[in-house]
Amino acid sequence: MAKEILWSEDQEFAYGIKAEFINKEDFIATVKAEHEDLTGEEFDVVDVEVCTGLYTDETLEAEKIILLKYTNVQIENWYVGRVEEKEV
């Protein structure tokens, strides 16, 4: 199974579907490796937690009821970690 990392717009937060990783340490190692490939710099991954979240690649309108069966929304448990500069 592919280990896909999604990034916040400013690359401060990394997200990964929990089922794709062996454990928290596997998620952290994957985030560090991918971040280093993207930026060329080593960073730490901190404040890692598991949260239940929604994912969709479609825009959902505000103040409108949309039944989930008519969307491609995925409800998953996600690892969420904050990326910060490595302490010297």
Comma- or semicolon-separated keywords:
alpha+beta; elongated; 88 residues; 18% helix; 1 helix
H/I helix tally: 1
Low-confidence segments, given as residue ranges, are none
The share of residues in helices is 10-25%
Strand order of the largest sheet: 1-2-4-3
- How many separate structural domains? 1
Number of beta strands: 4
What class do helices, strands and sheet pairing give? alpha+beta
Estimate the strand proportion: 35-45%
The gross shape turns out to be elongated
Overview of this protein structure:
This protein is α+β, with helices and mostly antiparallel strands. It has one helix at about 25-40, and strands at about 5, 15, 45-55, 75-85. It has a four-stranded antiparallel beta sheet with strand order 1-2-4-3. The relative contact order is 0.27. The mean pLDDT is about 90.
Topology:
Blueprint: E1 6-7, E2 13-17, H1 24-39, E3 43-55, E4 74-85
Antiparallel strand pairs: 1-2, 2-4, 3-4
